Amino acid sequence: MKNKEIAEMFFTIADLLDIKGEIPFKTRAYRIAAQTIADLDEDIEKLVREKKLEELPGIGKAIAKKITEYVETGSLEFYEKLKKEIPVGILELLEIPSLGPKKVATLYNKLGIKTIEELKKACEEGKLRDLEGFGEITERNILRGIKLKEKTQGRFLLNLAYENGMRYIDFLKQLSSIDKISIAGSLRRMKETIGDIDILVSSKNPEEVMNHFVEYPQVKQILVKGKTKTSVILEDGIQVDLRVVEERSFGAALQYFTGSKEHNVNLRGIAIKLGFKLNEYGLFEKDNDRYIAGRTEEEVYRKLGLPYIPPELRENRGEIEAGLENNLPDIIGYDDIKGDLHVHSIWSDGVNSIEDIALEAKEIGYEYIGISDHSQSLHIARGLSEKQVSEKIDEIRKLDDKIDGIGILCGTECDIKQDGSLDYPNSVLKKFDFVIAGIHIGFKMSREEATNRTIKAMENEYVTIVAHPTGRLIGRRESFDLDMDKIFEKAVETDTYLEINAFPDRLDLNDVNCKKGKEYGVKFVINTDAHSINHLPYMKYGVATARRGWLERKDVINTMSLKDLKKVIQ
Ligand code: DGT
Ligand code: CA
Ligand code: CA
Questions:
Q1: Residues contacting 278, CB < 8 A, separation 6+
Q2: CATH number of the domain located at residue range(s) 339-569 in this protein
Q3: For ligand 1, is residue 194 a contact (CB within 6 Å)?
Q4: What value does the mean pLDDT of the chain take?
């Protein structure tokens, strides 16, 4: 199937046309076509043969002709010409926050900048500040953006690694000579970004396993292939390491390769104190190398005087000490969530109707779903006017009566303005079942401004939840500088719940802030911020973050039944 290839080509064409300064209407058409092709279940080559392209939504005559040319000849003249005008490499510049197509075009035309490397050098030499539309502040922001990108360079968002890892495991499981199999490494710990995917297998026939492993269709490159370890790179660019061990070492190896390294170092110290030796082959007596344990992780931890420690806790943040005192938290489970309160519908910038969202939530097994669209001033996200709010609430009440087995609640993601006031008056806010307040514009704030702005919103009696409290976007935007101690104190004082936004590039609050907030007595809510029903499964990344932050069921309000939830959000 050439679907993915063609979709990517059209996305690239759209970006290149943007840089060229083409009218937005035209570039949008390419993006819509690209998305349609990317979402297509059928083979596009088949549609070309059957001349059915134009039946697809968003594909007109001109684009259908281009697809046909590409499928039939293997290249597209229009695209080849465009690439001669504007080097494709330049597109990486668009990944820098604060750089749009217009600025990229200026950088290319005036300074000949084609790569991030060249851009960094030009910023450092102060060459950008005199360009039209730039300035010293822009120059500084671009440099900061480059550094932020470098920090996450080579790491992948959790969802990309998770989805790739699970598909790979499914593929490997087809082989009968695989005995036990598990994800290990940072992915098993559900860290917010993943360097590479680690998979562990026990088998009596390692060679066969390795042969099968490299036959996975998504493998782009084999880095090393051995008897105990093989590493490959997938089409998505992510590296996967497979290790094959003997059955009696599986638990010890899983423990070892799950990490974190810091957790392992601490654990090995405990083993030594007890007269043992711990490595990836097992737990042994130090003096005579007698095998003590290693088949399961539980067994290894038990022999070291510890309860089983869930992978998400293994960051050496006190979990071993707590375990020794039998004081580990009973962390929230992936199945404990009874509903999602932050979902966007077609009323604002979501893609699904409320009815579709409700039916999908029911299918997932939720007890309730909260539809929280944007507020009036957020025009870019099609925020709702006061009149629309009333209409939407009516629709929700009707659907709630119509659809059995799921409670539908009406919320809002109300913008917190620069001065900390809210984007609806209280007379409107009180109509909602709950109010999520969040900052969406005006990110350049001092620590004091950001903290006060958030606190003022929490003081509003109708505000139930603070959305993505620190505003970070992983690899793209730093958190606001917030005084978290003050935020936690205020959240407890005002009974405001802090969101753990499960969207993979947010995961905000993060694990460390969850743990700290819990010590203050803060209560949390885990929401996906879904803009499509396809995003609802992101919930697990939020739960993972809560688990990594030591949260228990009782710390998270959307583990409650609808009846209890209604009481606390009132
Ligand atoms: P990543 O891939 O950067 O997101 O993080 P990890 O934790 O998956 O790290 P990775 O893939 O380098 O290694 C997997 C695990 O193997 C790691 O969590 C702990 C263990 N490990 C690897 N190298 C060492 C080491 O030198 N010492 C110890 N104690 N453990 C190691
Ligand atoms: Ca790894
Ligand atoms: Ca690795």
A1: 252, 267, 268, 271, 284, 300, 304
A2: 3.20.20.140
A3: yes
A4: 95
Domain boundaries, the chain: 3-151, 156-245, 250-324, 339-569
Q: Which two tokens stand for residue 515?
A: 């743990």
Closest CA to 47 of 3, 4, 5: 3
Q: How far apart are CA 86 and CA 109, in angstroms?
A: 10
Range 514-523 average pLDDT: 98
Would the CB of 264 count as within 6 Å of ligand 1? yes
- The region of weakest confidence among 14-28, 237-251, 290-304, 407-421 is 14-28
For residues 343 and 525, the answer to whether their CB atoms sit within 8 Å is: no
Paired with 245 in beta bridges are 202
For the stretch 444-468, pLDDT in tens is 899 999 999 999 999 999 999 999 9
Select the CATH number that applies to the domain covering 156-245 from these four: 3.40.50.300, 2.60.120.200, 3.30.420.100, 3.30.460.10.
3.30.460.10
Whether 550 lines ligand 1, by a CB cut-off of 6 Å, is no
Angle between helix 158-173 and helix 539-548 axes, rounded to 10 deg: 100
As a whole number of angstroms, the distance between CA 239 and CA 161 comes to: 9
Return residues with CB closer than 5 A to ligand 3 (ion).
196, 198, 241
Helix, strand, coil shares of the chain, percent, nearest 5, are 50, 15, 35
Q: In which band, very low, low, confident or very high, does the pLDDT at 380 lie, cut at 50, 70 and 90? A: confident
Mean pLDDT of 168-185: 97
Residue with the smallest CA separation from ligand 1 atom 13 is 185
Nearest protein CA to atom 9 of ligand 1, as residue: 185
Residue 357: which H helix or E strand, with range? helix 354-364
| Residue 231 CB–ligand 1 contact under 6 Å | no
Q: Which CATH superfamily is domain 250-324 in?
A: DNA polymerase, thumb domain (3.30.210.10)
Taking CA atoms, 75 is separated from 20, 67, 72, 81, 220, in Å, by 21, 9, 8, 11, 22
Name the phi and psi angles at 95, rounded to 5: -75, -10
CB–CB of 91/100 below 8 Å?
Answer: no
Listed in sequence order, the residues at least 6 apart from 105 whose beta carbon sits closer than 8 Å to its beta carbon are: 19, 20, 21
Please name the CATH architecture into which domain 3-151 falls: Orthogonal Bundle (1.10)
Q: Is 268 in the pocket of ligand 1 (CB under 6 A)?
A: no
77-85 vs 61-73: helix crossing angle, rounded to 10:
90
Tell me: the pLDDT tens digits for 534-555?
999 999 999 999 999 999 999 9
Q: Which of 74, 68, 106 is nearest to 90 (CA)?
A: 106
Bridge-based pairing state of the strands 229-234 and 239-245: antiparallel
| Ligand 1 atom at minimum distance from 187 CA | 8
